Amino acid sequence: MKPLIRCMAGMVCAGLLLPGSASYAETFDRGQALYENHCRTCHEEGIHVRDNRRVTSIGELRHRVASWSYHAALGWSDEDIADVVDYLDRRFYHYTDRP
User: Is 66 exposed, middle or buried (0-12, 13-18, 19+ CB in 10 A)?
Assistant: First the structure.
C-alpha cells in the first residue's frame, strides 16, 4: 500500500492530478469557456464562417463582443472580452490586423 500512496503523492506534487495544474491549464481556454457558456446559445458556429458576415476586422470583433456582453448584462471585464475575442479570432476569423 505504501508504494501506491507514494505514487499518488508524487503525481499530486508533479501536478498530474490537480485540476489547477499546468497540464490542465494548458488545455483550458477561458475565452472558449466564456463563449460556450454565454454566447453559443444564440450564436452557433455558422454565424462566424458565413460568406456575408458583418465583422471584417479584429477591432469590429472586439466592438461586437463588448456590445453583446453589455446588452446581455454579463458584466464582463476587459480581460473577459479580450479572451473571447482572442478565442473567436483563433477559431474562426484569423485576422492579420491584431494589435
Answer: middle
Give the Cα separation of 85 and 66 in Å (integer). 9
Cα gap 48→3, rounded to integer Å: 52
Q: b/e for 12-30, b at 16 or more Cβ within 10 A?
A: eeeeeeeeeeeeeeeeeee
Distance separating alpha carbons of residues 74 and 39, to the nearest angstrom: 10
Do residues 11 and 17 touch, judged by C-beta distance below 8 A? yes
Residue 48: name the closest of 86, 88, 78 by CA: 88
Helices marked H in 1-99:
2-13, 22-27, 30-38, 46-49, 58-71, 78-88
Residues 22-35: tens digit of each pLDDT: 555 566 899 999 99
pTM of the model: 0.67
